[in-house]
Amino acid sequence: MDILIEQEVALHQFETRQNRDEVARLIHPSFREVGRSGTSFDFNSILEMMTEEQASSGYIHSQDFELIQLEASVYLLLYKSAWVDEAGNAGHFSKRSSIWSFTGENWQLKYHQGTPCEEFEFFP
User: Fold this and answer.
1) Which InterPro entries match (predicted)?
2) What count of Cα atoms within 13 Å lies in the side-chain half-sphere of residue 52?
3) How many domains, the chain?
4) Which residues pair with 33 in a beta bridge?
């Protein structure tokens, strides 16, 4: 199920996040998120947040992906992430979980949660 990892990582990219059609393709209309900060988002609020984002010289690094099948067309994706600044310093370490569902046409993200965690060994 590499497609789910690819789509998850695509949502980390500024270019993807600024493309409303691509975001709508990747994120289910009933989407819910509990962000790293504890803030809750739905589909409309996440679209608004992404639209207001500014380009950055840093990026989101992700690693240690694990997929767990919950049903025939539903997967839980677990991984770790960190924000990497322009100097290559990692911070904002998080454990992430996403639920992806196949709609009959494509895979869409239905739920995402980020939880702060201790610093982990970073593999750029």
Assistant:
1) DUF4440, NTF2-like_dom_sf
2) 6
3) 1
4) 41, 112
Q: How far apart are CA 92 and CA 60, in angstroms?
A: 10
Closest by CA to 89, choosing from 119, 69, 46, is 119
User: CATH number for the domain including 73?
Assistant: 3.10.450.50
pTM given for the model: 0.94
Residue 100 has pLDDT above 90, yes or no: yes
Give the model's confidence band at 11: pLDDT under 50 very low, under 70 low, under 90 confident, else very high: very high
Q: 27-34 and 107-116: which strand pairing?
A: parallel
Phi/psi of residue 46, nearest 5 degrees? -70, -35
Question: Is residue 124 in a domain?
Answer: no
As beta bridge partners, residue 95 has: 80, 115
Is 123 part of any domain?
A: no
Give the separation between CA 75 and CA 114, rounded to whole angstroms.
Answer: 17
